[in-house]
Amino acid sequence: DSGVTQTPKHLITATGQRVTLRCSPRSGDLSVYWYQQSLDQGLQFLIQYYNGEERAKGNILERFSAQQFPDLHSELNLSSLELGDSALYFCASDQRGDTYNEQFFGPGTRLTVL
Amino acid sequence: DQQVKQNSPSLSVQEGRISILNCDYTNSMFDYFLWYKKYPAEGPTFLISISSIKDKNEDGRFTVFLNKSAKHLSLHIVPSQPGDSAVYFCAASFYSGGGADGLTFGKGTHLIIQP
């Protein structure tokens, strides 16, 4: 158990809909990262937050957004969903937020868009 | 454009032998490399890392070698055990000054340890 929790575990929805994925980092970790793993791709970095502020952006679509709240949990919002958004979404956390240390990953949320 | 490549989607090794997983990268800015292991239905778990100022890092049965001139790293597992059967991801990072850019992952190698 990494100490990172993600909810829900599975999500099935329809095209055009909007969903919210939630992540609670390990106790003491200030930084949260979101990654997407689709069938034909490895893990793709989406976005990073550090202590409530956006710190870095990767391959995140404009239809996607995220935020980190004062209690440090984070939410990833996916809107106008398309079939191609079906993937595993992982959240990871670390203390320093500089990637020169290991990140601890949650178990992931499997999103299926029908 | 894939900056971190793991060219072997799968690898089968006999129990007790050495497993060698390979990874190539193209971005010369990368200066920190990590290996993660992933079991089905779980998130990736950190295994071992290496900074670009080193060429080798060892932790128990796991050793990572870095060849900067070839932009190549490898993970050696000796001896291989059944519990090592998993997908192994190579990852790389650099600090751009404005903030971390997340990890760049390869697509993974599925290691199967045969009894």
Question: Which tags fit this structure?
Answer:
heterodimer; A: 114 residues; mainly beta; 7-stranded mixed β-sheet; 4-stranded antiparallel β-sheet; 11 strands; globular; B: 115 residues; 6-stranded mixed β-sheet; 5-stranded antiparallel β-sheet
Secondary-structure topology with pairs:
The complex is a heterodimer of chains A (114) and B (115).
Chain A: E1 5-7, E2 10-13, E3 19-24, E4 31-37, E5 43-50, E6 53-57, E7 64-68, E8 74-78, E9 87-94, E10 104-105, E11 109-113
Chain B: E1 4-5, E2 10-14, E3 19-25, E4 32-38, E5 45-51, E6 56-59, E7 62-67, E8 72-77, E9 86-93, E10 104-105, E11 109-114
Parallel strand pairs in B: 2-11
Antiparallel strand pairs in B: 1-3, 3-8, 4-5, 4-9, 6-7, 7-8, 9-10, 9-11
Summarize the structure.
The complex is a heterodimer of chains A (114) and B (115). With 114 residues, chain A is mainly beta. Chain A has strands at 5-7, 10-13, 19-24, 31-37, 43-50, 53-57, 64-68, 74-78, 87-94, 104-105, 109-113.
Structure commentary:
The complex is a heterodimer of chains A (114) and B (115). Chain A has 114 residues and is an all-beta fold. Chain A has strands at 5-7, 10-13, 19-24, 31-37, 43-50, 53-57, 64-68, 74-78, 87-94, 104-105, 109-113. In chain A, strand 4 and strand 5 (43-50) form a beta hairpin. Chain B is mainly beta and 115 residues long. Chain B is 0% helix and 52% strand. Chain B has strands spanning 4-5, 10-14, 19-25, 32-38, 45-51, 56-59, 62-67, 72-77, 86-93, 104-105, 109-114. In chain B, strands 2, 4, 5, 9, 10 and 11 form a six-stranded mixed beta sheet that branches. In chain B, strand 6 (56-59) and strand 7 (62-67) form a beta hairpin. Chain A binds chain B through residues 2, 4, 31, 33, 35, 41-48, 50, 55-56, 58, 90, 92, 97-108, and chain B through 4, 32, 34, 36, 41-46, 49, 51, 89, 91, 93-96, 98-108.
